[in-house]
Design brief:
It holds the Pfam family Sigma54_activat. It comes from Azospirillum argentinense. This is ATPase AAA. One of its GO terms (molecular function) is ATP binding. The protein is of the alpha/beta class. It has four domains: about 5-135, Rossmann fold (3-Layer(aba) Sandwich); about 140-220 and about 225-315, Rossmann fold (3-Layer(aba) Sandwich), CATH 3.40.50.300; about 320-385, Helicase, Ruva Protein, domain 3 (Orthogonal Bundle), CATH 1.10.8.60; about 425-470, Orthogonal Bundle (Arc Repressor Mutant, subunit A), CATH 1.10.10. The protein has helices at about 15-25, 40-45, 65-75, 90-95, 110-135, 150-160, 180-190, 205-215, 230-235, 250-265, 290-295, 300-305, 320-340, 345-355, 360-375, 410-420, 430-445, 450-455, 460-470, and strands spanning about 10, 30-35, 50-55, 80-85, 100-105, 140, 145, 170, 195-200, 240-245, 265, 275, 280-285, 310, 345, 380. β6 and β7 (about 145) form a beta hairpin. The radius of gyration is 32 Å and the shape is extended. The protein starts with 7 loop residues before the first strand and ends with a helix.
Length: about 475
């Protein structure tokens, strides 16, 4: 908040002094409101607007300290500066105890007042930033996203900032990280929220039909075009056009898309009339777009035209404990849908879910949890219910094959199974393999955990969290 935009409330019952103080503050403050009583001050503060409050203690209707106590009790967004001709150490200490920012004893100079007010403004601004950050950290749900990790809070803040703009957004991330969810979140947060959101998957439509899909076509323009057809660009007019898997576009269509973005106009396939639309473009890919440019598969000028606001969606393995929040939500949803009785995961099952690397991200989580709910029942999900790739829980013997092996005799079958089965000593639980890999990386980096995390391609916070968990369980 700029300093001059911070309102100042001056609570002073001597009109001549109030005019002098207001004159002192004229250069630094755009709005100074003067009141003469404590009741009037509290009425002004009731609207909750952040303010600097210059508070005299000797007021006609109540003591200024009572006003301060009310401000403190109601946690009003104020920085209070006490001004009084009757200063004492005891009064100053009491004022600070109830949240006063500073204490000025009359008479004071213009410079002393203005410096104190400037500092109070800066403190109020920083306090609001901290409050805003803490509020953001509390967001676990956001327009279809579920997760409260720091990585996702950063994504939410970018969406908040980018939504009101017309600038093109380029979303990257692994398959299953929620790129279409992100595009819809931007649209729903934007001024275009009540207009159409049209999504096209550029990798799911045959290349020879892609131009018609985006720009539409006229009757008879190609075999099968039995009527005029409106394309996605026209249907998204006023709203948002989302082009998923943008790197799958054919080179000739990339050229036409570039012209469309530059001019906002297009010609339907087989048509001769230019059409103009007003829309916002959001695109996404699970590839590395710069590598696609370097290898000649994606136009460099189109890349820079699209890559205005980049948003990278982190993989689930870098989102701290978000996987547990997501698993619990899917468990509740699918339990209700399938009419089962699940209410929780056991601690051991949660540990297995937390430490798995989830290459398929949120989409894989959906499949795993639905598999559990469909094939089992009970109130608690146990490790034995987890499907592949979690494998057979440690300590559980694998079942023998249904048909005999080897020479077909019982003894031969047992020998064959023994020969084929891995030795228990060569198979470790997943958490143990992960722990050993992390500890070896830390040792190789001379104890530098951020460097070890970079080599392992995980976040440092993941290593810290896992090591704390292992220490608490006596496994480290």
């Amino acid at each position: 908040m700029p300093a001059r935009s911070t309102p100042v409330l001056l609570v002073e019952d001597t009109p001549s002094l109030a005019r002098v103080y207001a004159e002192f503050l004229k250069k630094d403050c755009s709005a100074v409101t003067t009141v003469e009583t404590g009741a009037a001050a509290l009425e002004q503060l009731a609207d909750g607007v952040p303010r600097i409050v210059l508070l005299d203690l000797q007021l006609p209707d109540m003591h200024g300290m009572d006003v301060l106590k009310r401000i403190n009790a109601q946690a009003l967004p104020c920085a209070v500066i006490i001004i009084t001709a009757h200063g004492s150490v005891g009064v100053a200490v009491e004022a600070m105890r109830y949240g006063a920012y500073d204490f000025l004893v009359k008479p004071f100079s213009a410079e002393r007042l203005t410096v104190t007010v400037r500092n109070a403004m800066e403190r109020l601004r920083l306090a609001q930033l901290v409050d805003s950050f803490e509020k953001d950290l509390g967001r676990s749900r956001y327009h279809g996203f579920l997760g409260s990790s720091l990585a996702m809070q950063a994504v939410y803040r970018i969406i908040d900032s980018a939504a009101s703009s017309r600038a093109t957004v380029f979303i990257t991330g692994e398959s299953g990280t929620g790129k279409e969810v992100c595009a819809e979140a931007i649209h729903r947060q934007s001024p275009r929220a009540d207009r159409p959101f049209i999504a096209i998957n550029c990798g799911a439509i045959p290349k020879d039909l892609m131009e018609s899909e985006i720009f539409g076509h006229m009757k008879g323009s190609f075999t099968g075009a039995v009527a005029d057809r409106e394309g996605a660009a026209a249907r998204a007019n006023g709203g948002t056009l989302f082009l998923d898997e943008i790197c799958e576009l054919a080179p000739d269509l990339q050229t036409k898309l570039l012209r469309f973005i530059q001019t906002g106009t297009f010609t339907p396939v087989g048509g001769s009339k230019l059409e103009k639309v007003d829309l916002r473009i959001i695109c996404a890919t699970n590839r590395d777009p710069l590598r696609e440019v370097e290898e000649g598969r994606f136009r460099e000028d189109l890349y820079y035209r699209l890559h205005v606001i980049p948003i990278h969606l982190p993989p689930l393995r870098e989102r701290e404990d978000d996987v547990l929040e997501i698993c619990r939500q899917f468990l509740a949803d699918y339990t209700r849908e399938e009419g089962k009785g699940f209410v929780r995961f056991s601690p051991a099952a949660e540990q297995a879910l937390r430490t798995y690397h989830w290459p398929g991200n949120v989409r894989q989580v959906q499949n795993v949890v639905r598999n559990i709910v469909v094939l089992h029942d009970g109130d608690t999900v146990t490790p034995a219910m987890l499907p592949a790739p979690f494998g057979t829980p440690a300590g559980t013997a694998a079942p023998p094959p249904a048909n005999g092996g080897g020479n077909g005799h019982g003894g031969g079958h047992a020998q064959g199974s023994a020969a084929q089965a891995p030795s228990p000593k060569t198979v470790k639980p997943l958490w143990e393999v992960e722990r050993d890999a992390i500890e070896e990386a830390i040792a190789a980096c001379d104890g530098n955990i951020p460097r070890a995390a970079a080599l392992l391609e995980i976040s440092a916070s993941t290593i810290y969290r896992k090591r704390l968990a292992w220490q608490a369980e006596g496994k480290l």
